Structure formats: structure tokens, C-alpha cells
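Input record, target 12 of the design panel.
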């Protein structure tokens, strides 16, 4: 009678030789349906990448258009505070689009969502909201809600930084 562990190893080797072509990169699944879904999602994310480039270029053209229009109306080459705030808002929108583009590219390259970059994007979006906001037009609950969001983002950012610092310390020991 043969060694049962050697027959088990040989059957596992045969299965792995047959299954290499079907092996899915997503969670180690052998299911071809999951593999197909994974490929479809990757193409969708690549499509989003190209669309985000279009949005970034469109945003840059919008910033240029706003500046040219505001600077070419009397009084020439002067901006009032509302024009400056509108320009800042347009700039920040383009920067947020660039951050989202970077999130998409990093996901495509490593298939991992980088929490710190997502938090960077959220903080920038919240900062844009604060910069362009007219606090005279907001209710107390809206101001309180925005401040709670900013505090939550700050705490999340702090936790992410502390977590990365502890991993660095553990890795260097």
C-alpha cells in the first residue's frame, strides 16, 4: 500500500497543472465567471481613467475661460472677492479631479485602494467646500455638519498616519 500523503500531493499537482489556465487573480478564485467579472471591472476602471483625463482637461479649459472672461471685463485685470473665490473653486475642482485620477491609476497598478490617497482627496474636497462657501447663506446645522465631516476626516487621517508609523517601526526592528 502506498503512502497516502504522496498520492494526495500528486493529485493536488495534477489539479494545479490543470487549473493554472483558469486561475483568477481575484481572491484566488478558480471560477471563470469571477475571472470574467474581474476583467470587465478592470476595463471599466480603465475607461474611467480616460474619462477622468477628459474631465481634467475640460476643467483646465474652464479655469482659463473664467479667468479670461473676468479679467477682460471692466475694470480690466481686476478681480473682486467673488471672482477670486470662484477661481479658487475651479482650481480646487481640477486638483480634486487629478487626485481621483491618481486613485484610479494606483488601483489599476496594484489592485489595492490606498486609504491615505482617498483621505487626501476627501480632505481636498472638504477644503474646497470651505473655501468657496458663503457662511452667510448657510444654516447652523449645515455649518455643524461640515465641521463634523472635517473632524472625522482629520481623525481618520491621524489613524492612518499612526498606523503607517507603527508599521515602519515594526519593520525596522
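The sequence produced for target 12 reads:
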Amino acid at each position: 500500500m502506498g503512502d497516502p500523503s504522496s498520492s494526495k500531493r500528486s493529485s493536488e499537482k495534477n489539479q494545479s497543472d490543470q487549473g493554472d489556465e483558469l486561475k483568477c487573480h481575484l481572491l484566488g478564485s478558480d471560477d471563470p465567471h469571477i475571472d470574467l467579472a474581474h476583467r470587465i471591472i478592470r476595463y471599466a476602471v480603465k475607461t474611467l481613467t480616460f474619462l477622468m483625463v477628459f474631465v481634467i482637461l475640460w476643467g483646465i479649459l474652464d479655469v482659463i475661460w473664467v479667468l479670461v472672461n473676468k479679467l477682460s471685463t471692466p475694470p480690466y485685470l481686476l478681480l473682486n472677492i467673488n471672482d477670486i473665490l470662484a477661481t479658487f473653486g475651479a482650481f480646487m475642482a481640477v486638483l480634486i479631479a487629478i487626485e481621483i485620477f491618481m486613485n484610479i491609476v494606483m488601483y489599476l497598478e496594484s489592485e489595492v485602494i490606498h486609504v491615505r490617497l482617498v483621505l487626501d482627496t476627501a480632505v481636498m474636497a472638504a477644503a474646497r467646500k470651505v473655501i468657496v462657501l458663503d457662511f452667510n447663506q448657510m444654516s447652523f446645522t449645515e455649518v455643524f455638519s461640515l465641521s463634523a465631516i472635517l473632524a472625522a476626516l482629520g481623525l481618520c487621517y491621524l489613524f492612518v498616519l499612526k498606523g503607517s508609523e507603527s508599521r515602519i517601526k515594526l519593520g525596522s526592528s
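Residues 32-71 form the longest helix (40 residues).
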